[in-house]
């Protein structure tokens, strides 16, 4: 797994590793609603980086028809996804995730609602 080598990502990781879920976010950050989640994620590919482990944990591609795939450790899973009021939900064969997604504009951070852990989302080109 490739680690986060960008200094900007390292700064985000450091801040959110120290930030407790539920505490106010820094100035300029806000939680995305369902429409914004659809807009940012449909037909896009994102790498998801663990803040605690400083590594890429998976790559996800979400299609605009509510399907998608996750790739992690040479394992590929087909998935279904949707966005509710302010939450991204992804259901796969072996993996289910529920996230709140936060942005300051260009950056995206996800809070895993099951684990109470943050991850950095970075857009990637291609499928």
Content of β-strand: over 45%
The mean pLDDT is 88
Q: How would you name the oligomeric state of the polypeptide chains in this document?
A: single chain
Order of helical and strand elements:
HEHEEEEEEEE
Task: Note the total helix count.
Answer: 2
Q: Indicate the low-confidence ranges by residue numbers.
A: none
For the sheet with most strands, the description reads: 8 strands, antiparallel, barrel
Can you give the helix content as a percent range?
A: 10-25%
Shape: globular
Radius of gyration: 14 Å
Measured between the Cα atoms of the first and last residue, the distance is 19 Å
Strands ordered across the widest β-sheet: 2-3-4-5-6-7-8-9
Describe the structure.
It is a single chain. The protein is α+β, with helices and mostly antiparallel strands. The chain is 16% helix and 46% strand. It has 2 helices and 9 strands; from the N terminus they run αβαββββββββ. The protein has an 8-stranded antiparallel β-barrel. The two termini are 19 Å apart. 24% of the residues are buried.
Q: Layout of SSEs?
A:
Elements lengths: L6 H12 L11 E2 L2 H8 L2 E7 L4 E8 L4 E6 L2 E9 L4 E5 L3 E8 L4 E5 L4 E8 L3
Antiparallel strand pairs: 1-7, 2-3, 2-9, 3-4, 4-5, 5-6, 6-7, 7-8, 8-9
Quick summary of this structure?
By secondary structure, this protein is of the alpha+beta class. It has helices spanning 7-18, 34-41, and strands at 30-31, 44-50, 55-62, 67-72, 75-83, 88-92, 96-103, 108-112, 117-124.
List keywords for this structure.
16% helix, 127 residues, 8-stranded antiparallel β-barrel, alpha+beta
């Amino acid at each position: 797994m490739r680690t986060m080598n960008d200094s900007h990502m390292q700064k985000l990781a450091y801040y959110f590793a120290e930030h407790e879920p539920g505490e106010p976010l820094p100035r300029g950050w806000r939680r995305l609603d369902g429409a914004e989640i659809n807009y940012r994620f449909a037909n896009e590919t994102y790498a998801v980086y663990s803040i605690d482990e400083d590594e890429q944990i998976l790559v996800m591609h979400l299609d605009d028809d509510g399907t998608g795939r996750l790739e992690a450790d040479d394992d590929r899973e087909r998935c279904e996804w949707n966005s509710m009021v302010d939450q991204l939900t992804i259901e796969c064969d072996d993996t289910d995730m529920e996230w709140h997604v936060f942005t300051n504009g260009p950056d995206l951070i996800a809070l895993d609602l099951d684990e109470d852990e943050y991850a950095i989302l970075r857009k990637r080109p291609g499928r």
